[in-house]
């Protein structure tokens, strides 16, 4: 696993806008969703890349965490 760490401010930079990669955090893990068609432009069903989305994926996502399988892990999400 990559040793990079992201806090809320750092993760927000990876919003899929203006040529930036699109990253999302779920349960302390940061995933790269840049190449996922559903995340084009850093947006997916009202959610924005560059955010911590554990509650969203656990309570509102019809596919749940299984969609994370196969995504590239780019680091860990830390709160501070």
Automatic annotation (TrEMBL):
Domain Cytochrome b5 heme-binding: 6-78
Membrane-spanning residues: none
InterPro entries to which the protein is assigned, alphabetical: Cyt_B5-like_heme/steroid-bd, Cyt_B5-like_heme/steroid_sf
One Pfam family matching this protein: Cyt-b5
Domain of life of the native organism: Bacteria
Protein name, as recorded: Cytochrome b5 heme-binding domain-containing protein
Source organism per UniProt: Lactiplantibacillus plantarum WJL
Taxon lineage: Bacteria, Bacillati, Bacillota, Bacilli, Lactobacillales
